[in-house]
Task: structure prediction
Amino acid sequence: MSAPLRQIPVARPLLGEQEAEALRRVVLSGWVTQGPEVAAFEAEFAALTGAPHACAVSNCTTALHLALLALGIGAGDEVVTVSHTFVATANAIRYCGAVPVFVDIESDGFNIDPSLVEAAMTPRTKAILCVHQLGMPCALQRLATIAAAHGVPLVEDAACATGSEILWDGRWEKIGKPHGTVACFSFHPRKVVTTGDGGMLTTADPALDAKFRLWRQHGMSVTDAARHGSPVVIFERYPELGFNYRMTDLQAAVGREQLRRLPGIVEERRRIAREYDEALAAIPGIATPVEPRWARSNWQSYCVDVSRLGSQRTIMQILLDQGISTRRGIMNIHLEDAYAGPGSFRCGSSLNRSVEAQNGSIILPLFSGMSDADVWATAEALEAIARSSGPSPAPARSVRPRSEAADLARKAPSAA
Ligand SMILES: *Cc1c(COP(=O)(O)O)cnc(C)c1O
Result:
Protein backbone atom coordinates (compact mmCIF):
# COMPACT_ATOMS: atom_id res chain seq x y z
CA MET A 1 0.00 0.00 0.00
CA SER A 2 1.31 3.44 -0.86
CA ALA A 3 1.33 6.20 1.73
CA PRO A 4 -1.57 8.64 1.44
CA LEU A 5 -0.66 11.65 -0.67
CA ARG A 6 0.26 14.65 1.41
CA GLN A 7 -1.97 17.70 0.81
CA ILE A 8 -0.50 21.08 1.60
CA PRO A 9 -2.75 23.99 0.57
CA VAL A 10 -1.22 27.33 -0.35
CA ALA A 11 -3.52 29.18 2.08
CA ARG A 12 -6.44 28.52 4.40
CA PRO A 13 -8.53 30.98 6.42
CA LEU A 14 -8.64 30.43 10.19
CA LEU A 15 -12.35 30.32 11.08
CA GLY A 16 -14.04 28.45 13.90
CA GLU A 17 -16.64 28.35 16.63
CA GLN A 18 -16.11 31.98 17.66
CA GLU A 19 -17.00 33.23 14.18
CA ALA A 20 -19.95 30.82 13.95
CA GLU A 21 -21.24 32.06 17.33
CA ALA A 22 -20.82 35.69 16.27
CA LEU A 23 -22.91 35.05 13.16
CA ARG A 24 -25.61 33.38 15.22
CA ARG A 25 -25.70 36.38 17.55
CA VAL A 26 -26.15 38.81 14.66
CA VAL A 27 -28.72 36.70 12.83
CA LEU A 28 -30.84 36.45 15.97
CA SER A 29 -30.46 40.17 16.72
CA GLY A 30 -32.49 40.99 13.62
CA TRP A 31 -30.07 43.74 12.45
CA VAL A 32 -27.88 42.40 9.66
CA THR A 33 -26.31 45.28 7.75
CA GLN A 34 -24.18 48.35 8.60
CA GLY A 35 -25.33 48.69 12.17
CA PRO A 36 -23.83 48.22 15.62
CA GLU A 37 -21.45 45.40 14.65
CA VAL A 38 -19.96 47.49 11.84
CA ALA A 39 -19.51 50.44 14.22
CA ALA A 40 -17.80 48.20 16.79
CA PHE A 41 -15.58 46.58 14.14
CA GLU A 42 -14.52 50.05 12.94
CA ALA A 43 -13.67 51.17 16.47
CA GLU A 44 -11.65 48.02 17.09
CA PHE A 45 -9.81 48.32 13.77
CA ALA A 46 -9.00 51.98 14.53
CA ALA A 47 -7.62 50.92 17.92
CA LEU A 48 -5.54 48.19 16.30
CA THR A 49 -3.92 50.46 13.70
CA GLY A 50 -3.85 53.64 15.76
CA ALA A 51 -5.94 55.37 13.08
CA PRO A 52 -8.16 58.32 14.09
CA HIS A 53 -10.88 57.09 11.68
CA ALA A 54 -11.77 53.68 10.24
CA CYS A 55 -14.65 53.18 7.80
CA ALA A 56 -15.78 49.68 6.81
CA VAL A 57 -16.82 48.92 3.23
CA SER A 58 -17.72 45.93 1.07
CA ASN A 59 -14.14 45.09 -0.02
CA CYS A 60 -10.75 46.65 -0.65
CA THR A 61 -11.52 47.45 -4.28
CA THR A 62 -14.41 49.69 -3.24
CA ALA A 63 -12.18 51.13 -0.48
CA LEU A 64 -9.58 52.10 -3.10
CA HIS A 65 -12.30 53.59 -5.32
CA LEU A 66 -13.68 55.73 -2.49
CA ALA A 67 -10.19 56.80 -1.38
CA LEU A 68 -9.27 58.05 -4.85
CA LEU A 69 -12.64 59.73 -5.43
CA ALA A 70 -12.50 61.50 -2.07
CA LEU A 71 -9.06 62.82 -3.00
CA GLY A 72 -10.57 64.33 -6.14
CA ILE A 73 -8.98 61.95 -8.66
CA GLY A 74 -10.87 62.26 -11.93
CA ALA A 75 -10.77 62.11 -15.71
CA GLY A 76 -7.36 62.81 -17.22
CA ASP A 77 -5.50 62.63 -13.90
CA GLU A 78 -2.58 60.27 -13.40
CA VAL A 79 -1.80 58.08 -10.40
CA VAL A 80 1.67 56.56 -10.00
CA THR A 81 1.56 52.93 -8.89
CA VAL A 82 2.97 49.47 -9.68
CA SER A 83 1.96 46.99 -12.37
CA HIS A 84 3.23 44.13 -10.21
CA THR A 85 0.09 43.93 -8.04
CA PHE A 86 -3.42 42.52 -8.03
CA VAL A 87 -5.52 43.95 -10.85
CA ALA A 88 -7.85 45.80 -8.43
CA THR A 89 -5.13 48.34 -7.55
CA ALA A 90 -5.13 49.85 -11.03
CA ASN A 91 -8.81 49.11 -11.74
CA ALA A 92 -9.75 51.54 -8.95
CA ILE A 93 -7.74 54.27 -10.69
CA ARG A 94 -9.55 53.60 -13.95
CA TYR A 95 -12.98 53.64 -12.26
CA CYS A 96 -12.22 57.32 -11.56
CA GLY A 97 -11.43 57.96 -15.22
CA ALA A 98 -7.77 58.43 -14.34
CA VAL A 99 -4.70 56.74 -15.84
CA PRO A 100 -2.41 54.40 -13.87
CA VAL A 101 1.28 55.16 -14.40
CA PHE A 102 3.27 52.02 -13.71
CA VAL A 103 6.76 52.02 -12.25
CA ASP A 104 8.94 49.01 -11.56
CA ILE A 105 9.60 47.18 -8.32
CA GLU A 106 12.84 47.04 -6.35
CA SER A 107 15.63 44.65 -7.37
CA ASP A 108 15.55 42.98 -3.95
CA GLY A 109 11.84 42.73 -3.19
CA PHE A 110 8.33 42.87 -4.63
CA ASN A 111 7.42 46.46 -3.70
CA ILE A 112 7.53 49.74 -5.60
CA ASP A 113 11.02 51.16 -6.18
CA PRO A 114 10.74 54.65 -4.67
CA SER A 115 13.72 55.88 -6.68
CA LEU A 116 11.63 55.58 -9.87
CA VAL A 117 8.61 57.55 -8.68
CA GLU A 118 9.68 61.14 -9.21
CA ALA A 119 10.75 60.58 -12.83
CA ALA A 120 7.29 59.15 -13.52
CA MET A 121 5.46 62.18 -12.18
CA THR A 122 4.03 64.91 -14.43
CA PRO A 123 1.81 67.92 -13.77
CA ARG A 124 -1.11 65.48 -14.18
CA THR A 125 0.02 63.29 -11.27
CA LYS A 126 -2.64 63.62 -8.58
CA ALA A 127 -1.64 60.79 -6.22
CA ILE A 128 0.84 58.03 -5.48
CA LEU A 129 -0.80 54.64 -4.83
CA CYS A 130 1.68 52.30 -3.16
CA VAL A 131 1.10 48.64 -2.31
CA HIS A 132 2.33 46.66 0.69
CA GLN A 133 2.67 43.57 -1.48
CA LEU A 134 2.30 40.15 0.16
CA GLY A 135 2.06 41.93 3.53
CA MET A 136 5.58 43.37 3.32
CA PRO A 137 5.58 47.12 4.05
CA CYS A 138 6.87 49.19 1.15
CA ALA A 139 9.31 52.10 1.60
CA LEU A 140 6.68 54.39 3.11
CA GLN A 141 9.07 56.91 4.60
CA ARG A 142 10.65 57.69 1.25
CA LEU A 143 7.31 57.69 -0.55
CA ALA A 144 5.76 60.03 2.01
CA THR A 145 8.70 62.41 1.53
CA ILE A 146 8.24 62.37 -2.25
CA ALA A 147 4.46 62.83 -1.98
CA ALA A 148 4.87 65.77 0.40
CA ALA A 149 7.53 67.40 -1.80
CA HIS A 150 5.12 67.29 -4.75
CA GLY A 151 1.99 68.15 -2.79
CA VAL A 152 0.13 64.97 -3.76
CA PRO A 153 -1.59 62.47 -1.44
CA LEU A 154 -0.13 59.03 -0.75
CA VAL A 155 -2.70 56.21 -0.79
CA GLU A 156 -1.67 52.84 0.67
CA ASP A 157 -3.08 49.66 -0.83
CA ALA A 158 -2.76 47.73 2.41
CA ALA A 159 -5.04 44.91 1.21
CA CYS A 160 -2.54 42.28 2.39
CA ALA A 161 -1.05 44.19 5.32
CA THR A 162 -3.41 43.90 8.30
CA GLY A 163 -1.07 43.45 11.27
CA SER A 164 2.13 44.40 9.40
CA GLU A 165 4.39 46.96 11.05
CA ILE A 166 6.85 49.68 10.12
CA LEU A 167 9.53 51.48 12.07
CA TRP A 168 8.46 55.12 12.10
CA ASP A 169 10.42 57.80 13.91
CA GLY A 170 12.02 55.10 16.02
CA ARG A 171 8.76 53.34 16.99
CA TRP A 172 7.10 50.24 15.59
CA GLU A 173 3.67 51.21 14.23
CA LYS A 174 0.95 49.23 12.50
CA ILE A 175 0.36 49.73 8.81
CA GLY A 176 -2.83 51.77 8.54
CA LYS A 177 -2.17 54.48 11.10
CA PRO A 178 -2.04 55.61 8.28
CA HIS A 179 1.41 56.87 7.28
CA GLY A 180 0.06 58.08 3.98
CA THR A 181 -3.23 59.98 3.55
CA VAL A 182 -5.50 56.92 3.41
CA ALA A 183 -4.89 53.18 3.80
CA CYS A 184 -7.19 50.52 2.29
CA PHE A 185 -7.49 46.98 3.66
CA SER A 186 -9.03 43.73 2.41
CA PHE A 187 -10.72 40.95 4.36
CA HIS A 188 -10.93 38.50 1.46
CA PRO A 189 -10.23 34.89 2.56
CA ARG A 190 -6.80 35.02 0.90
CA LYS A 191 -5.69 37.72 3.38
CA VAL A 192 -4.59 37.09 6.98
CA VAL A 193 -8.00 37.90 8.49
CA THR A 194 -11.30 37.53 6.65
CA THR A 195 -14.94 38.54 6.73
CA GLY A 196 -15.74 36.53 3.57
CA ASP A 197 -15.44 39.75 1.63
CA GLY A 198 -14.84 43.10 3.26
CA GLY A 199 -12.70 46.21 3.34
CA MET A 200 -11.64 49.12 5.54
CA LEU A 201 -10.42 52.67 4.98
CA THR A 202 -8.29 54.38 7.62
CA THR A 203 -7.37 58.06 7.67
CA ALA A 204 -6.50 60.91 10.02
CA ASP A 205 -8.58 63.35 7.95
CA PRO A 206 -12.16 63.74 9.28
CA ALA A 207 -13.35 65.32 6.02
CA LEU A 208 -12.21 62.29 4.01
CA ASP A 209 -13.80 59.93 6.53
CA ALA A 210 -17.09 61.84 6.22
CA LYS A 211 -17.03 61.40 2.44
CA PHE A 212 -16.38 57.66 2.73
CA ARG A 213 -19.35 57.32 5.09
CA LEU A 214 -21.66 59.33 2.86
CA TRP A 215 -20.70 57.61 -0.40
CA ARG A 216 -20.63 54.04 0.89
CA GLN A 217 -24.38 54.12 1.44
CA HIS A 218 -25.84 55.77 -1.66
CA GLY A 219 -24.84 59.33 -0.67
CA MET A 220 -27.71 59.23 1.82
CA SER A 221 -27.73 62.03 4.41
CA VAL A 222 -28.71 59.80 7.35
CA THR A 223 -27.69 56.24 8.16
CA ASP A 224 -30.27 53.47 8.45
CA ALA A 225 -29.28 52.99 12.08
CA ALA A 226 -29.76 56.69 12.92
CA ARG A 227 -33.13 56.89 11.17
CA HIS A 228 -34.30 53.67 12.77
CA GLY A 229 -33.32 54.89 16.25
CA SER A 230 -34.76 58.40 15.90
CA PRO A 231 -37.82 59.38 17.99
CA VAL A 232 -38.76 61.92 15.33
CA VAL A 233 -39.59 61.26 11.71
CA ILE A 234 -36.59 61.81 9.43
CA PHE A 235 -36.72 62.18 5.64
CA GLU A 236 -33.32 61.38 4.20
CA ARG A 237 -31.66 63.44 1.47
CA TYR A 238 -29.23 62.47 -1.29
CA PRO A 239 -26.89 65.45 -1.63
CA GLU A 240 -24.27 63.58 -3.68
CA LEU A 241 -23.92 60.63 -6.03
CA GLY A 242 -23.08 57.63 -3.89
CA PHE A 243 -22.63 53.86 -4.10
CA ASN A 244 -23.72 50.76 -2.26
CA TYR A 245 -20.35 49.83 -0.75
CA ARG A 246 -21.68 48.78 2.67
CA MET A 247 -20.31 46.05 4.89
CA THR A 248 -22.94 43.89 6.58
CA ASP A 249 -23.16 43.35 10.34
CA LEU A 250 -22.72 39.64 9.64
CA GLN A 251 -19.32 40.32 8.09
CA ALA A 252 -18.34 42.80 10.80
CA ALA A 253 -19.17 40.35 13.60
CA VAL A 254 -16.87 37.78 11.97
CA GLY A 255 -14.24 40.49 11.51
CA ARG A 256 -14.32 41.35 15.22
CA GLU A 257 -13.55 37.73 16.10
CA GLN A 258 -10.81 37.67 13.48
CA LEU A 259 -9.18 40.76 15.02
CA ARG A 260 -9.08 38.95 18.36
CA ARG A 261 -7.18 36.16 16.64
CA LEU A 262 -4.88 38.51 14.72
CA PRO A 263 -1.93 38.71 17.16
CA GLY A 264 -1.76 34.92 17.30
CA ILE A 265 -2.20 34.57 13.54
CA VAL A 266 0.63 37.02 12.80
CA GLU A 267 2.92 35.47 15.41
CA GLU A 268 2.40 32.03 13.92
CA ARG A 269 2.95 33.26 10.36
CA ARG A 270 6.21 34.93 11.42
CA ARG A 271 7.35 31.69 13.00
CA ILE A 272 6.54 29.72 9.82
CA ALA A 273 8.37 32.31 7.68
CA ARG A 274 11.48 31.95 9.87
CA GLU A 275 11.21 28.17 9.52
CA TYR A 276 11.12 28.56 5.72
CA ASP A 277 14.15 30.89 5.87
CA GLU A 278 16.05 28.16 7.68
CA ALA A 279 14.78 25.26 5.57
CA LEU A 280 15.51 27.01 2.26
CA ALA A 281 18.81 28.65 3.22
CA ALA A 282 21.04 25.86 1.97
CA ILE A 283 19.25 25.30 -1.34
CA PRO A 284 21.25 26.76 -4.21
CA GLY A 285 19.30 28.85 -6.68
CA ILE A 286 16.43 29.85 -4.41
CA ALA A 287 16.25 33.46 -3.24
CA THR A 288 14.15 33.92 -0.12
CA PRO A 289 12.25 37.12 0.72
CA VAL A 290 13.88 39.69 2.93
CA GLU A 291 12.44 41.95 5.57
CA PRO A 292 14.13 45.34 5.58
CA ARG A 293 15.36 46.46 9.02
CA TRP A 294 12.46 48.90 9.26
CA ALA A 295 9.66 46.46 8.37
CA ARG A 296 7.85 43.54 9.98
CA SER A 297 5.71 41.59 7.54
CA ASN A 298 2.56 39.74 8.59
CA TRP A 299 3.74 37.14 6.02
CA GLN A 300 0.42 37.10 4.19
CA SER A 301 2.48 35.33 1.53
CA TYR A 302 5.99 33.88 1.37
CA CYS A 303 7.27 34.32 -2.18
CA VAL A 304 10.59 32.93 -3.44
CA ASP A 305 12.53 33.53 -6.65
CA VAL A 306 13.03 30.18 -8.40
CA SER A 307 14.15 31.54 -11.78
CA ARG A 308 17.54 29.80 -11.47
CA LEU A 309 15.90 26.39 -10.95
CA GLY A 310 14.02 26.27 -14.23
CA SER A 311 10.55 26.95 -15.55
CA GLN A 312 8.10 28.33 -13.01
CA ARG A 313 5.21 26.25 -14.34
CA THR A 314 7.24 23.04 -14.32
CA ILE A 315 8.39 23.60 -10.75
CA MET A 316 4.82 24.34 -9.64
CA GLN A 317 3.59 21.18 -11.37
CA ILE A 318 6.28 18.99 -9.75
CA LEU A 319 5.24 20.37 -6.36
CA LEU A 320 1.53 19.91 -7.09
CA ASP A 321 2.17 16.30 -8.11
CA GLN A 322 3.44 15.85 -4.54
CA GLY A 323 0.33 17.49 -3.06
CA ILE A 324 2.00 20.87 -2.50
CA SER A 325 -0.05 23.80 -3.83
CA THR A 326 1.71 27.00 -4.85
CA ARG A 327 0.81 30.12 -6.81
CA ARG A 328 2.85 32.00 -9.35
CA GLY A 329 4.36 35.35 -8.37
CA ILE A 330 2.10 38.38 -8.32
CA MET A 331 0.65 39.30 -11.71
CA ASN A 332 1.60 42.23 -13.92
CA ILE A 333 -1.41 44.38 -14.75
CA HIS A 334 0.12 45.89 -17.90
CA LEU A 335 0.29 42.43 -19.52
CA GLU A 336 -3.46 41.74 -19.19
CA ASP A 337 -5.92 42.20 -22.05
CA ALA A 338 -8.07 44.48 -19.90
CA TYR A 339 -5.16 46.93 -20.14
CA ALA A 340 -4.44 46.47 -23.85
CA GLY A 341 -6.62 49.35 -25.00
CA PRO A 342 -5.16 52.76 -25.82
CA GLY A 343 -4.83 55.01 -22.80
CA SER A 344 -5.35 52.20 -20.27
CA PHE A 345 -2.04 52.96 -18.62
CA ARG A 346 1.29 54.70 -19.08
CA CYS A 347 4.74 53.29 -18.35
CA GLY A 348 6.61 55.42 -15.84
CA SER A 349 9.73 53.27 -16.09
CA SER A 350 10.97 50.00 -17.49
CA LEU A 351 8.90 47.16 -16.00
CA ASN A 352 11.49 44.42 -16.50
CA ARG A 353 11.81 43.50 -12.84
CA SER A 354 8.02 43.28 -12.51
CA VAL A 355 7.89 40.83 -15.42
CA GLU A 356 10.78 38.78 -14.00
CA ALA A 357 9.07 38.63 -10.60
CA GLN A 358 5.78 37.45 -12.14
CA ASN A 359 7.47 34.76 -14.21
CA GLY A 360 10.30 33.69 -11.93
CA SER A 361 8.82 33.53 -8.45
CA ILE A 362 6.32 31.30 -6.66
CA ILE A 363 4.24 31.70 -3.51
CA LEU A 364 4.78 28.79 -1.11
CA PRO A 365 2.15 27.32 1.26
CA LEU A 366 1.71 29.32 4.47
CA PHE A 367 -1.40 28.98 6.63
CA SER A 368 -2.50 28.80 10.25
CA GLY A 369 -1.85 25.33 11.60
CA MET A 370 0.89 24.57 9.07
CA SER A 371 3.36 22.17 10.68
CA ASP A 372 7.13 22.39 10.55
CA ALA A 373 6.97 19.03 8.79
CA ASP A 374 4.95 20.67 5.98
CA VAL A 375 7.54 23.45 5.71
CA TRP A 376 10.41 20.97 5.53
CA ALA A 377 8.55 18.72 3.09
CA THR A 378 8.09 21.72 0.80
CA ALA A 379 11.76 22.63 1.19
CA GLU A 380 12.85 19.06 0.46
CA ALA A 381 10.75 18.97 -2.69
CA LEU A 382 12.40 22.20 -3.82
CA GLU A 383 15.83 20.85 -2.94
CA ALA A 384 15.23 17.79 -5.12
CA ILE A 385 14.31 20.11 -8.00
CA ALA A 386 17.46 22.16 -7.37
CA ARG A 387 19.61 19.00 -7.37
CA SER A 388 18.17 17.79 -10.65
CA SER A 389 18.39 21.16 -12.38
CA GLY A 390 22.21 21.21 -12.27
CA PRO A 391 24.43 24.28 -12.42
CA SER A 392 22.31 27.34 -12.85
CA PRO A 393 22.93 30.67 -14.53
CA ALA A 394 23.04 33.91 -12.58
CA PRO A 395 19.70 34.88 -11.04
CA ALA A 396 17.42 37.11 -13.02
CA ARG A 397 16.85 39.13 -9.88
CA SER A 398 18.23 38.96 -6.39
CA VAL A 399 16.05 38.73 -3.34
CA ARG A 400 18.89 38.60 -0.87
CA PRO A 401 19.71 40.26 2.42
CA ARG A 402 20.18 43.93 1.90
CA SER A 403 23.53 45.43 2.69
CA GLU A 404 23.69 48.00 5.43
CA ALA A 405 24.68 50.56 2.79
CA ALA A 406 21.53 49.91 0.78
CA ASP A 407 19.48 50.27 3.92
CA LEU A 408 21.07 53.60 4.71
CA ALA A 409 20.53 54.78 1.15
CA ARG A 410 16.86 53.94 1.55
CA LYS A 411 16.58 56.08 4.63
CA ALA A 412 18.10 59.11 2.88
CA PRO A 413 15.54 61.70 1.83
CA SER A 414 14.86 61.63 -1.88
CA ALA A 415 16.28 64.95 -2.95
CA ALA A 416 16.98 63.92 -6.51
C1 LIG B 1 -6.68 41.37 -2.48
C2 LIG B 1 -6.15 42.63 -3.02
C3 LIG B 1 -7.00 43.67 -3.45
C4 LIG B 1 -8.50 43.50 -3.56
O1 LIG B 1 -9.13 43.24 -2.36
P1 LIG B 1 -10.70 42.84 -2.38
O2 LIG B 1 -11.07 42.95 -0.95
O3 LIG B 1 -10.78 41.45 -2.91
O4 LIG B 1 -11.40 43.82 -3.23
C5 LIG B 1 -6.43 44.87 -3.83
N1 LIG B 1 -5.11 45.05 -3.83
C6 LIG B 1 -4.25 44.07 -3.45
C7 LIG B 1 -2.79 44.34 -3.45
C8 LIG B 1 -4.75 42.82 -3.05
O5 LIG B 1 -3.90 41.86 -2.72
Q: What stands out?
A: The pocket of pyridoxal-5'-phosphate is lined by residues 59-61, 85-86, 88-89, 131, 157, 159-160, 186, 188, 199 (CB under 6 Å).
